[in-house]
Design brief:
By secondary structure, the chain is an alpha+beta fold. The chain is built from 19 helices and 38 strands. It has a 9-stranded mixed beta sheet, sandwiched between helices. A hairpin with a 2-residue loop joins strand 17 (409-410) and strand 18. Helix 5 (124-134) packs parallel to helix 7 and helix 10 (299-314) runs parallel beside helix 15 (428-442). The chain is globular and about 80 Å long.
Length: 736
């Protein structure tokens, strides 16, 4: 204990709750026996391994234990189960175990079997759909739901509106004498074909809320159940009628893992649950607990979440500004009781601007930390906590923002957040690793004295005309073409231009049989596929260490045999055509998995030009794009790469555990490499002219983890560099 004073301080504050002190096994023993795979995890389809993984996405799915899976396999191997609708002995066995599972599920929520039924479904979403489909909606009904709700709950709104019912989103606040419900705009559609009747005691209304918000971790007061049913709440302004019978639905998919609703005390009519969020296995099964005609909270996870919240709120940059903005309750006196084991936040720079959550996620992954970013399928909570107005949401959509993209900052505001969530097997060491990662990667500290060698500048020709006139002479050092997306390229002295950029650049790609686009991120073997376009022969020639013969593909479309079809990639539409079995078999052998090669016949697509280099301000450029991520060309300067290598060497001298890696410009897969200026001078270029051709800059390129992979002697090596070093001083989307 004396060797770890930080943990000792943690245990002084949380020792009575952390680690299950009164249980047969403490958390360290649980981790050592049930979750050994966290110490070393192999991803067979991605051809790499991760050591000492920190898993902090329990709100998405928790982890199954090893003994759990052993018991499942032992039971399946020793017991014969039949169709429960038959009458054989093995069928009766199935019926018995299903009945016992129903009984245990009801017991978990303290629900009386005489008062509630457990209906197994394919998941929480299916359970919610069942409620929406079977609820007795009428034109006099109201569907009321809190802003903090999962998309699956919001889907019920469509069933209500279709039947002519009203729908209204609300916020919940604590009033002086009663719970206060703040309404938003009432929604209603035309009532043609709806069941019309006067509002009577037979009119049914539905109120839906989560027991715990999967965005912020905020726990809702389950007293809402009784308040709604007893009409003991305050609702200012125009409100839906309180008449008729109100029924209550609790989305407990997230909250059940640590604090399941006690249905003997809060008699909700419907509760939905997802079992993989409780046990990690099995997936594809949930339950609807429906009422006919509290277990103790898991304080272990709450102690970790509270520790992380306090630490994040206390982080400060060197100028005293706050590093972290938490979403949910910021009053530390209320954090323990009102918040679950989920922490949602965004990080800020010393000047108050935001770090993009996608950058946080990428860097976390490099540190073997598994977390989640975005809006987590909860658009209401996302907009509410981020302070996004309706016009701002529309503006983000018009700018092309969709779920899972890299538009994490638009118009100076985050479009989502970072979420970490703890499970019953999470440890103090997991929490500490997260905090160390945030401190080392995002907190501005007082500058350290630099060595004399690093302060010396290289001689640079002075320009009397200023940077904007570009009096300095620049040189185009290399041109590289990458015919197949994510495969190796080839360098040439000169190359034709066309409407899509360099002729045949990224004109082909590989996709899996399920339609997934293959890249080096998941299939690093693609980096060993060599490519060459021979314009005289009219062929694309590819080779691989795994294939005996090289493959020649004709540049004319005669070799394509599949019909042309339209596919969407990165929000862009392409007309593509595939090849026959010979080509697909060759590439499947080269990458070690079934795949197909397709060729692009580019549509007219949009590029976003960051014209004045301020975040979130774009103008659209019409251009034909092949299978590129952002623009037709990627450019980098030798001086920028040289500066990065100087920083990598300096980091090694300061005692970094990383082995030294000399970075070549090709690591960034540029089409054009230039030289002749100061490091990063290309950041400020609006346009440039090479020969008689004019080029327009569309801004910086998003960084990718592919730059951390090296390909030598038929093997792929991964490290944290150079992306970790870049992240320490290159915080905007820039050319390098």
């Amino acid at each position: 204990m004396a060797d770890d004073p930080e943990k000792e301080r943690f245990l002084m504050e949380f020792g009575q709750d952390y680690g299950y002190p009164n249980a047969p096994k403490n958390v360290d023993e649980i981790r050592a026996t049930e979750f050994k795979r966290l110490n070393g995890l192999v991803f067979p389809f991605a051809s790499f391994a991760i050591l000492n993984l920190v898993y902090l996405d329990h709100a998405g799915a928790t982890l199954y234990s090893e003994s759990q899976m052993e018991d499942v396999f032992k039971d399946l191997n020793s017991t014969l189960y039949g169709n429960p609708h038959s009458q054989s002995n093995c069928s009766l066995t199935t019926g018995d175990i299903v009945g016992e599972a129903r009984r245990q599920t009801l017991s978990f929520f303290n629900a009386s079997p005489g008062e509630y039924k457990c209906i197994f479904t394919s998941g929480a979403t299916a359970a919610l759909k069942l409620v929406g489909e079977t609820f007795p909606w009428s034109s006099q009904s109201t569907f009321m739901y809190t802003m903090e709700n999962h998309n699956s709950v919001l889907g019920i709104r469509e069933y209500a509106l279709k039947e002519g019912a009203a729908a209204i989103a609300v916020d919940i606040e604590d009033g002086k004498s009663a719970i206060q419900i703040i309404p938003h705009t009432l929604q209603r559609r035309g009532e043609v074909g709806c069941r019309k009747k006067e509002q009577t005691s037979d009119t049914y209304n539905l109120f839906a809320f989560p027991s715990e918000c999967n965005f912020s971790g905020l726990r809702f007061d389950l007293g809402l159940v009784n308040a709604i049913k007893e009409d003991s709440y305050e609702m200012p302004g125009p409100t839906p009628s309180h008449s008729g019978r109100w029924m209550v639905l609790i989305d407990a998919a997230k909250g059940s893992a640590t604090s399941p609703p006690d249905l003997s005390k809060y008699k909700a009519d419907f509760v939905v649950v997802s079992f993989y969020k409780l046990f990690g296995y099995p997936t594809g099964i949930g339950a609807l607990i429906a009422r006919n005609g509290k277990l103790p909270t898991a304080w272990h996870t709450m102690s970790l979440a509270l520790y992380v919240r306090k630490a994040l709120l206390n982080l400060r940059h060197v100028n005293g500004s706050r590093v972290c903005t938490l979403y949910g309750v910021n009053d530390l006196e209320l954090l323990c009781n009102e918040m679950g084991p989920t922490v949602s936040f965004n990080l800020q720079r010393p000047d108050g601007s935001w770090f993009g959550y996608r950058e946080v996620e990428k860097l976390a992954s490099l540190s073997n930390i598994q977390l989640r970013t975005g809006c987590f399928c909860n658009p209401g909570a996302c907009a509410k906590h981020l302070g996004l107005s309706h016009p701002e949401l529309l503006s983000n959509i018009e700018a092309g923002h969709v779920c899972w993209d890299d538009h994490d900052i638009l118009n100076g505001k985050p479009t989502g957040s970072v979420r970490v969530s703890f499970g019953y097997m999470s440890t103090f060491e997991d929490a500490r690793t997260l905090l160390k990662f945030i401190k080392s990667s995002f907190v501005a500290l007082p500058p350290q004295p630099m060595s004399l060698d690093l302060l010396r500048e290289k001689p640079f020709p002075a320009s009397t005309e200023g940077v904007e006139r570009v009096a300095t002479r620049y040189f185009l050092k290399s041109i590289t073409v990458y015919p197949i997306k994510s495969c190796a390229g080839f360098t040439v002295e000169s190359w034709p231009l066309c409407s899509t950029g360099l002729l045949h650049d990224r004109e082909w790609l590989l996709k899996s049989l399920s339609g997934e686009i293959l890249t080096q991120k998941k299939v690093p073997e693609m980096g060993f596929i060599t490519t060459l376009v021979d314009l005289k022969l009219g062929q694309l020639i590819v080779g691989s260490l795994r294939c005996k013969e090289k493959l020649q593909i004709e540049l004319t479309s005669d070799q394509c045999i599949d019909e042309r079809q339209v596919m969407e990639i990165y929000s862009q539409r392409y007309e593509v055509q595939g090849y026959g079995n010979e080509v697909d078999t060759w590439f499947s052998t080269a990458v070690g998995r079934p795949c197909t090669l397709v060729r692009s016949y580019a549509f007219q697509n949009h590029m976003c030009s960051n014209k004045n280099r301020s975040m979130g301000i774009c103008r659209d450029l019409e251009a034909q794009l092949n299978f590129v991520n952002e623009a037709q060309f990627l450019l980098i300067s030798e001086e920028s790469v040289a500066d990065l290598n100087n920083r990598l060497r300096s980091k090694l001298h300061k005692g970094s555990n990383e082995r030294h890696i000399e970075v070549d410009p090709s690591r960034f897969r540029p089409n054009l490499v230039v030289s002749g200026g100061k490091p990063y001078i290309e950041d400020g270029w609006r346009s440039l002219k090479i020969g008689q051709t004019n080029f327009t800059s569309v801004g910086g390129c998003n960084r990718c983890q592919m730059i951390n992979m090296t390909f030598t002697a038929g093997t792929v090596q991964r490290s944290n560099e150079p992306l970790a070093t870049l992240a320490s001083y290159r915080r905007l989307k820039v050319s390098i």
